């Protein structure tokens, strides 16, 4: 082999291990890849140092080369993390490098898992590093709905107990100000305000969702509620709805808030009514909410049916069968 | 994505409502013989629009997707059976798991694909006799089951590999493969069920981890897992059905989250999820089929994520699976789970 590593005296003592993809055997690899030579060489040296479990600077450098060629190579990341801890390397430097890689490969899973593995080290990161959240905002500037980044940020909140950190809610406010339809940001906001915090309670999207003894009606309901916070969140949702009445996210956020607080939809009747004047509808979500409120009030069943019929026939005919189902449910109840 | 995107592009003509069966068969079998260039393998990681599922080594998955697509098209013999089996077995590692390709480390995703392929071509007996850990022609299946079971963690979820990344994709895959191998008793099913339930959100849908935003791909994995575990009764079907049916946008296609663009693969993720909770009729099937058909390349075959984009084997598989679900004429019927 004649390549960068083969010609490097630093690597002279290592015998590369070639890829065995079955192509030398009778089995024809059904889907073999035409690897470029530099990748073939780098991974053959990688196999050799991994087989010897070598924890060294040169091996660290090699992992970087392999990642640059293929960031989705899942094994190389594991090995890299092991070396970093074994050599007690500066994880701040690693994060700085990782930031660049993350911005380049926005959809990669391994990068974010690697970040989480490093950040999990209480020894290196007893508290959240000051620039961590700045970097996440930089990622959101590229794609404010990047699922990997949101999942990682959720993990950070739990790991460092950041539910009430002012920075969390400030960032969410800023993202929603930039795009009030960002459902990821609404989802994170709900997590900050209403997800379980106790060490011995497993995390869940709805309070008690994973507890089999909780009835569906009680899922998402909190035992203790800060009513002032609930009122403030409902007001926040209303302001967002006024900006974009057809935006689903704040309507569902409000439903979640009311549910957490054990309060009914009825208190939103007046607000929702502002978006529905006869047949003039500014928000189908308002129509749906009003219909539910009326349906609960036995005497207003017909009004509920009329509203759902409006959705079925005029505003959302693509889901005709769904609205029919909802209408039938009310008729059954009535 | 590896096996490639391209070379063709989706036609995108709204008038085209015909399924180009023979073209798709040719497209998939060519992937096998021509091979994708390494270049396109990498470009996929960088450029790929679809946010999920894709950014990994995908070789073995690619074979599975191509194979299923051929079965749906009624042409299972288009990929040679014995070399398919030999290739799959050559991806197995000593611990019983499978890697993305020969020489790669074992991972849950590829192990699941391997089991699915072997079941599809009816070759579990070869695994039993010739797989790792088999002695005197026996034990290969148990070895794979043990590998999968070893990846369940304390919370009930499953890891992708020893490295510890957890994801409901892995949980679904584990239950799927174990049920195909008839080895469900190797794992703690109630604990896995409880974990899935903790991923439920206020909108009735599910996220990748507890409390993570609802995502149509994750909904599929979560309720697929509950379906295999026989616990569909735990789902709030009306609320989830409402969320899922809202994924249909004006053009007829589905998106994966609110306010995102439609993508042909969600015809499968959303459609099959609706089917599992008996609410597929809540959406407009004709409009959905129309959108998926616009994602075809009518000349060279294959499907893209949306009209005008490059075709690839992933979207070809899921586009066809979605059409099959809608009982589209000329396709074999598919089981939503």
Automatic annotation (TrEMBL), chain A:
Q: By its UniProt entry, which InterPro entries does this protein fall under?
A: Prenyl_trans_a (IPR002088)
GO cellular component terms, A-Z: CAAX-protein geranylgeranyltransferase complex; protein farnesyltransferase complex
Gene3D superfamilies the record matches = Protein prenylyltransferase
> PROSITE patterns under this entry?
PFTA
So what EC number does this one have?
2.5.1.58, 2.5.1.59
Top-level taxon of origin: Eukaryota
Q: Which PANTHER family match?
A: PROTEIN FARNESYLTRANSFERASE ALPHA SUBUNIT/RAB GERANYLGERANYL TRANSFERASE ALPHA SUBUNIT (PTHR11129), PROTEIN FARNESYLTRANSFERASE_GERANYLGERANYLTRANSFERASE TYPE-1 SUBUNIT ALPHA (PTHR11129:SF1)
Return the protein name: Protein farnesyltransferase/geranylgeranyltransferase type-1 subunit alpha
- The species is Penicillium chermesinum
TrEMBL record, chain B:
All copies of the Prenyltransferase alpha-alpha toroid domain together span: 40-337
Paste the cofactor note: Binds 1 zinc ion per subunit.
Q: Which UniProt keywords apply?
A: Metal-binding, Prenyltransferase, Repeat, Transferase, Zinc
What is the catalytic activity of this protein? geranylgeranyl diphosphate + L-cysteinyl-[protein] = S-geranylgeranyl-L-cysteinyl-[protein] + diphosphate
Its domain of life? Answer: Eukaryota
Supply the EC number(s): 2.5.1.60
Could you tell me the Gene Ontology terms of the biological process aspect for this record? protein localization to membrane
Against InterPro entries, the record matches this protein to: PGGT1B-like (IPR045089), Prenyltrans (IPR001330), Ptb1 (IPR026873), Terpenoid_cyclase/PrenylTrfase (IPR008930)
Q: Provide the cofactor list for this protein.
A: Zn(2+)
**Secretion signal: which residues?**
none
Q: Which GO terms describe its cellular component?
A: Rab-protein geranylgeranyltransferase complex
List the Gene Ontology MF annotations in alphabetical order: metal ion binding; Rab geranylgeranyltransferase activity
User: Is the keyword NAD in the record?
Assistant: no
PANTHER family registered for this protein in UniProt: GERANYLGERANYL TRANSFERASE TYPE BETA SUBUNIT, GERANYLGERANYL TRANSFERASE TYPE-2 SUBUNIT BETA
Q: How does it assemble?
A: Heterodimer of an alpha and a beta subunit.
What is this protein's function per UniProt?
A: Catalyzes the transfer of a geranylgeranyl moiety from geranylgeranyl diphosphate to both cysteines of proteins with the C-terminal sequence -XXCC, -XCXC and -CCXX.
Per the record, the similarity remark reads:
Belongs to the protein prenyltransferase subunit beta family.
UniProt name for this protein = Geranylgeranyl transferase type-2 subunit beta
Task: State the organism named in the record.
Answer: Penicillium chermesinum
């Amino acid at each position: 082999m004649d390549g960068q590593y083969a010609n490097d005296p630093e690597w002279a003592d290592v015998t590369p291990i070639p890829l065995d993809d079955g192509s030398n055997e009778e089995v024809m690899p059904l889907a073999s890849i035409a690897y470029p030579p530099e990748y073939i060489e780098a991974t053959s040296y990688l196999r050799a140092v991994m087989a010897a479990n070598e924890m060294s600077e040169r091996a660290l450098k090699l992992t970087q080369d392999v990642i640059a060629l293929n960031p989705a190579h899942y094994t190389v990341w594991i090995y890299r993390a092991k070396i970093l801890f074994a050599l007690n390397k500066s994880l701040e430097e690693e994060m700085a490098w990782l930031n660049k890689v993350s911005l380049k490969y926005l959809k990669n899973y391994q990068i974010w898992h690697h970040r989480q593995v490093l950040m999990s080290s209480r020894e290196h990161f007893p508290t959240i590093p000051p620039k961590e959240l700045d970097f996440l905002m930089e990622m959101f500037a590229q794609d404010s709905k990047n699922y990997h980044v949101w999942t990682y940020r959720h993990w950070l909140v739990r790991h460092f107990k950041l539910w009430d950190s002012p920075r969390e809610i400030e960032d969410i406010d800023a993202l929603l100000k930039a795009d009030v339809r960002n459902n990821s940001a609404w989802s994170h906001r709900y997590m900050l305000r209403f997800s379980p915090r106790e060490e011995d309670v497993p995390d869940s999207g709805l309070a008690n969702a994973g507890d089999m003894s909780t009835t569906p009606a009680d899922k998402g309901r909190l035992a203790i509620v800060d009513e002032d916070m609930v009122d403030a969140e409902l007001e926040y949702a209303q302001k967002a709805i006024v900006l974009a009445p057809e935006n689903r996210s704040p309507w569902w956020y409000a439903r979640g808030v009311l549910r957490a607080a054990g309060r009914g939809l009825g208190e939103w009747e007046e607000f929702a009514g502002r978006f529905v004047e006869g047949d003039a509808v500014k928000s189908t979500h308002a129509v749906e909410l009003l219909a539910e409120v009326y349906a609960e009030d036995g005497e207003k069943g017909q009004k509920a049916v009329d509203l759902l019929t409006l959705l079925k026939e005029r505003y959302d005919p693509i889901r005709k069968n769904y609205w029919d189902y909802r209408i039938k449910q009310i008729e059954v109840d009535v | 994505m590896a096996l490639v995107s391209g070379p063709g592009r989706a036609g995108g003509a709204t008038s085209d409502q015909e399924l180009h069966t023979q073209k798709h068969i040719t497209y998939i079998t060519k992937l096998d013989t021509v091979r994708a260039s390494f270049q396109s393998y990498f470009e996929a990681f960088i450029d790929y629009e679809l946010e999920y599922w894709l950014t990994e080594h995908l070789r073995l998955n690619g074979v599975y997707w191509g194979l299923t697509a051929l079965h749906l098209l009624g042409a299972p013999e288009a990929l040679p059976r014995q070399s398919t089996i030999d290739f799959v077995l050559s991806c197995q590692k000593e611990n019983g798991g499978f890697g993305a390709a020969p020489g790669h480390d074992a991972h849950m995703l590829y192990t699941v694909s391997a089991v699915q392929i072997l079941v599809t071509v009816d070759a579990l007996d070869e695994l039993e006799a010739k797989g790792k850990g088999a002695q005197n022609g026996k034990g290969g299946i148990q070895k794979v089951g043990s590998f999968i079971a070893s990846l369940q963690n304390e919370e009930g979820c499953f890891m992708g590999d020893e490295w510890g990344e957890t994801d409901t994709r892995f949980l679904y895959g584990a239950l799927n493969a174990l049920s195909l191998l008839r080895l469900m008793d190797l794992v703690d099913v109630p604990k896995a069920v409880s974990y899935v339930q903790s991923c439920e959100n206020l909108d009735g849908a599910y996220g990748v981890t507890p409390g993570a935003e609802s995502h149509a791909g994750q909904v599929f994995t979560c309720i697929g897992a509950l379906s295999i575990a026989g616990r569909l009764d735990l789902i709030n079907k009306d609320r989830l059905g409402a969320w899922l049916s809202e994924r249909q946008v004006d053009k007829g296609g589905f998106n994966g989250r609110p306010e995102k663009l439609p993508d042909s693969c969600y015809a499968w993720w959303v459609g099959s999820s609706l089917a599992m909770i008996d609410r597929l009729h809540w959406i407009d099937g004709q409009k959905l089929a129309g959108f998926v058909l616009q994602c075809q390349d009518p000349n060279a075959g294959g499907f893209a994520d949306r009209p005008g984009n490059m075709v690839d084997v992933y979207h070809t598989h899921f586009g066809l699976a979605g059409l099959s679900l809608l009982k589209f004429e000329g396709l074999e019927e598919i089981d939503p789970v």
